[in-house]
Amino acid sequence: MPQNIDEIPPTPMNTVSSEVVKTGGWRAFKPVCDESRCIKCWICWKYCPDVSIAIGENGPVFDYDHCKGCGICANECPVKCIEMIPENK
Amino acid sequence: MIEIRFHGRGGQGAVVASRIIAEAAFREGKDVQAFPYFGVERRGAPVTAFTKIDDRHIRNKSMIYEPDHVIVLEASLIQAVDVTQGLKKDGMVLVNTESDPDEIRRQLDFDNVAVVNATKIALDNQLGSKVQPIVNTGITGAFARASGLISIESVEAAIMNIVPRYPEKNAKAARDAYEAVMLPGGG
Amino acid sequence: MVKDIMTGNKATAYGAMLARAQVVAAYPITPQTTIVERIADLIAEGKMKAKYIMVESEHSAMAATIAASNTGARAFTATSSHGLALMHEVLMWAAGARTPAVLVNVNRAMAPPWSVYADHQDAMAQRDTGVMQFWAENNQEILDSVIIAYKVAENKDILLPAMINQDAFYLSHTSEPVDIPDQELVDQYLPPFETEVKLDVDNPKGFGSFIMPPQYMEFRGHMARSMDKAREVIRKADREWEELTGRSYGGLMDMYRCEDAEFILFGAGTMMSTAKDVVDELRKEGRKVGIARLRVFRPFPVDEVRYLADRVHAIGVLDRTYTFGYGGPLFNEMNSQMYNHGKRPPTKNYIIGVGGRDVRPKHIRGIFDDLEKVSKEGYGEEGEIHWWGLLDGKTPEEEL
């Protein structure tokens, strides 16, 4: 949004972390885990490039506000319990 | 001058769709401009593209603020983006959806809506995968019929010239969408 | 002649191909554009017979371009914003070494704030390098200018590099119809490059020697003289191109409805194309307005500016950048060319479109209104420099 010249800092500065930038809207496909098959190896958690997977009690917990739907988790999952489903379904 | 805005997601080919419409009009003797929203593209993020069509040489280089028509490549964008922003009152919205046109009219609060299931048409023509169907060519055919601005033959010729992979299948998808589009007010 | 729809980047590549550039040296990473991708395609497809050298920076790109030119090859490169800034040192070398290479620059804003949008600071900062500067308003002009620029640069009386400027996105990524001239026609216009200033094993020479104070000034004077001569060479090259293709860009200045104009706007790039539409509208309302679009910045169109000074009531100068000190670069140039001339109509500087902010017809209309007011009532409190649409709490919403 436009800002008045008297109210802006002299050069662009981030004063908050990138957590406030919701990148979930970029997603065309969202990861969904079938927890009954999850072996809790947490390879998905290690590989997520956007730190959008947390370790949950029964499997990965996806942060859909930030997950961009890259599908690396589904690709790396050794038991293929993560499915990428179209966002508009 | 006719101004058209395209809404898609990065990787869906909204920019190519804008060029197909431009080239189709150019083949019918018009002057044209096609351009992406001046931004940094990333796969999956909402993207915008534009086409200008005029009988006279187009000198105006500024962007489009009040389009005559809007083309939406994916219905889920209606929730993410204000697709009717600035749209002229007598303008038209063409949406790729499997939904009923009345449902889209209600969502947009706009009557002059045409719909086409370009995703199904793409898959029927083996264009892309279920995960990533190629809908940008089909929808240009639907636009030819819904707008009456350009002929389907010009759209097919433009696709044959622009699309590098499977141009025949893409042209067929455009023809199929031309036949299948549900026009505003039925038909 | 074939007409095709293409972006400014593709038009650039076609210009280089039709000009039969033999060596292309470029750095392919940001802020580079698809120009060099298109050229690589043309070479890979066998349509363009050129050696493509991928280098590790824009500084090296220009260095390789100079070296290629020194072997007698027609050399080409392309860059943008920070890439052009990194080339700065080597642009001076290219000019001093009298290498008639051509480069296309996609005009983008300098960071920070980080940006990839249209802005003229990158090119204006190269004013004093000795590189000729052409400015395009559409993709046809880009393609044509690459060919015309070689014709001028390789003239034995000139031997200076040339840069063609195109606005980021407005041209670089916008597709529009472009006439692709026949190769035979281009060959007729632009004969193969021949120069005495080249490396030749049968006739060995060395370049870049040290020069003592008694002679250095003469070499600079020689360059200055060539740049001055370039004015007439450019006008002639423009006329010859028109004879072959029917397309003229007005030599150094593209004057639109200036003959009887009372108020004109002077500026460069795509915003001046938009402004021509506004001139037609205002003319219908009976207002005598015109556009003087800068086509060549270096050498500066002194005669053209003075021609306008003799005729008009006031001149608005549009700068898509600022010199951070006082005024925009075109404003200062225009004013200084009129100072020792008999007539000096009032001028006002409008800083507009900086960092890619869209320049819309309503802005141009507003500027014409303001200029007429200035000519009648004087500058007022605001003075002679106006940042058009700056968010300073004074600009009404509808003007943005």
Describe, in plain words, how this protein is organized in 3D.
The complex is a heterotrimer of chains A (89), B (187) and C (400). Chain A contains 2 helices and 4 strands. With 89 residues, chain A is α+β, with helices and mostly antiparallel strands. Chain A has a two-stranded antiparallel sheet with strand order 1-4. In chain A, strands 2-3 form a two-stranded antiparallel sheet. In chain A, β2 and β3 form a beta hairpin. In chain B, strands 2-3-1-4-5-6 form a 6-stranded mixed β-sheet, with helices on both faces. Chain B is globular. The two termini of chain B are 27 Å apart. Chain C has 2 domains: 244 residues, Thiamin diphosphate (ThDP)-binding fold, Pyr/PP domains (Rossmann fold); 146 residues, 3-Layer(aba) Sandwich (Rossmann fold). A 7-stranded mixed β-sheet of chain C has the order 3-2-4-5-7-6-12, sandwiched between helices. In chain C, β10, α9 and β11 form a beta-alpha-beta unit. The radius of gyration of chain C is 21 Å and the shape is globular. The model of chain C has no long low-confidence stretch (mean pLDDT 96). Helix content of chain C is 40%, strand content 18%. The chains are: A alpha+beta (89), B alpha/beta (187), C alpha/beta (400). Chains in contact: A-B, A-C, B-C. At the A-C interface, loops of A face loops of C.
Brief account:
Chain A has 89 residues and is α+β, with helices and mostly antiparallel strands. Chain A has helices at 43-47, 72-76, and strands at 29-33, 53-55, 60-62, 82-86. Chain A is elongated and about 55 Å long.
Biggest sheet record of chain C: 7 strands, mixed
Task: Report the total helices of chain C.
Answer: 12
How far from one another are the termini of chain C? 42 Å
Helical content of chain B (DSSP H or I, runs of 4+): 25-40%
CATH topology of the largest domain in chain C: Rossmann fold
- SSE run of chain B: EHEEEHEHEHHHH
- Full CATH superfamily name of the largest domain in chain C: Thiamin diphosphate (ThDP)-binding fold, Pyr/PP domains
Q: What would CATH call the architecture of the largest domain in chain C?
A: 3-Layer(aba) Sandwich
**If you average the pLDDT of chain B, what whole number results?**
93
In whole angstroms, the N-to-C terminal distance of chain B is: 27 Å
The chain-level mean pLDDT of chain C equals 96
